[in-house]
Automatic annotation (TrEMBL):
Main location: other
Chaperone as UniProt keyword: no
Region annotated Disordered, chain positions: 37-72, 128-198, 216-263, 348-450, 468-524
Localization of this protein: Cell projection, Cilium
Keyword terms: Cell projection, Cilium
Organism: Salarias fasciatus (Jewelled blenny)
Protein name: Trichohyalin-plectin-homology domain-containing protein
Biased composition (Polar residues): 234-248
Source organism, top-level taxon: Eukaryota
Keyword field contains Transmembrane helix: no
Positions with biased composition (Basic and acidic residues): 37-51, 58-71, 128-197, 216-231, 348-357, 366-391, 400-450, 500-511
InterPro entries linked: CFAP53/TCHP (IPR043596)
Amino acid sequence: MATDTPAESSWSPWQPTQLQTLSWLISDQSSVRGECRAERLSSDDVIKHQSENSTDENMNRRSQKDCEIHNSWEQSTQQRFLRREVDRRVQGAVSADQALLDNKRFRLRKMLEAEERQYLQELEAKRETAAEKKDKMSKRLGELKKKREAERQQLVGEKREQQFRRQDVDYRDLQRKRSELEASEHQKAQLRVKQEQRQQQQQEEQLYAQLWEADRQAKEERERRGKETRRQANLKTAQEVLAQSQEAQQRRTEQKKVLQQQEAQQLQQQQEALLLQQQQQQRKKTLQKKTFVRQLDRELQLKKQRVAREQRDEEQLNLSVMRQLPPQLPQQDPDQPQKAEQKRLRLKEDRLLDRKQLQQARQAQKKTEEQRERRTEEQRKEIQLKNDEQRRRQRQASTKLKEEVKDSNRLRVQNRLKEKQLQAVEHQRQVEERLQSEERARRQAQEEKLQQTLHKEAYAADLRAQMLQQPKQQQQQQRRPPIRGVSATTGPGRLLPKRSRLEPNRLRRPDPSPSTLNPITGLRASRTVLPAIPTSIRR
């Protein structure tokens, strides 16, 4: 409008070039307005795409920032927990050291106080005066005199009592009778003790016999129970191994089913998530396409309206200019075809520019969609890789669990086999020891029997020799004169030596030594555990 005012003010009917100048200015203004609108439209599209890209970048940056914040929070929390645990342990160690140090200080303080008191007492003792020392020595001297006098009086009393005992006959007789009575009482007590010991020994022999028999029966019962227990243990072990194998097989089957179900569920979830993502992407693409088409239609309508409005404005301007001009003969402008051609070329360039901008916008949108699809594909691949890694870890954990179960079962079976072998070796050793003890007992019995036979034969030979010598001795005694105080006839028992009355004891079996083995239980007797076998049991 600023350019129209001087033109209208300087216009006159006697200047024919004013109309040409005015039309040129109007066309130039319309072209400038079109270029400004096209530039504004292209800048709006660019700003819109830039805002979309910046929004995506902001979202990615925000998500990355949230992940970083979460990771840093987890790390700080772990470090804080670790720091607190370290501080707690350090505080505990420091408090323990401090308590130990305080205890040592307390004991040292007590020792120092005791030493100080003792030192002060010693100093006080050393600071005694001469008078105090004299008094103390006099007191000590009096005590010693009293003690010596008491000892002298006691010694005099004892001497007098001894002298009285030696000089008094009745007292000596009374003392002698008392001593004889005490001696007789002591002998009676010894006899009673011996009788009680003899009875106790008989009771002990009976008790030992009963214990021996009970021990033998208990050992037989233990062996029987041990065999039954081992049989039941072997049966139970076999049942446990079978049950464990069945349980392990059932557990493996269940784990396999669970893994298959989990894999199927994960695959179904992945497929559902992928399908949902594809549907969302498809809906988003359709919505974006519809939005873009609506935007293009709206821009095309706006452009058509703008062109129509510009044409109407130009026509109205031309009509207003033509109305203001005076009637004159029409004169043809020589530059008007050239201006029309220039205007047509400008309109064509505007259309080409609009098409180019529209094509660039479509290419940018296509590029954005490709980038979005690429990100989606990368996310899908990452999810697939994570799921594959999770399944691989689950398979590794299942394989490891199976191997651990197999190893534990194998170790258990090996331990059971080792225990059985050790039990078999121990049983074999016990059987061998029992056989050896029975063999030793049998040999000892044979040796004792042989010794008894030899003793009997020697005793019979001695008796025969004495019986053969008896008539000769009688004849010799009859020939000799009788000796005073000795009978001429003696019984048959007088011919035997004194040791003949002890011969029956020689026929007994010798008592076994403490190291002799028991032929029934196979145990080695000891002086502190079991006494010698009684005579009733041996016979």
